[in-house]
Design brief:
Layout lengths: L14 H7 L3 E4 L11 E4 L15 E3 L7 H10 L2 E6 L4 H9 L2 E6 L4 E2 L5 E2 L5 E6 L1 H7 L7
Parallel strand pairs: 1-2, 3-4
Antiparallel strand pairs: 4-8, 5-8, 6-7
Helix pairs in contact: 2-3
Amino acid sequence: MTNHEYTSDDYYTPKELFDLLDVQFDLDPAHPPFQTNVPCTTYYTINDDGLTQPWFGNVWMNPPFSKPRPWVEKFVQHGNGIALLPQSKSQWFYDLWQSAAAITTFGSSLRFVDPKGGKGSILMPTCLIAFGEKNIEAISRIGKVR
């Protein structure tokens, strides 16, 4: 890992989840400033400001959980991909629930990769949101889809 200054948002998707999904993505608009396990051809890091860049193709999104709303809005507008998000009692989650093509939850069982490369849990339950037929099929391998 680089000299990146870590924050409470620095928890990364484990490779095992990508292995289960078995999907190749075209873009990760919220990628850390170093290489991770995301099976993707194009990455935007904090230095690129993925919210202001054009999104294309099949998107993987694990945005900063401290401020997901603008990421979720752009993801819904894009309409093709899989997002890993916290479950929340917020308006943005309600709006997402109303618009999402598919959703499955992990409860609190997903163990993220922490900044030092270990596995760690977070305090909130998480879910996968999918748009697009192949993405909906992929998240159905994780759990029951609504």
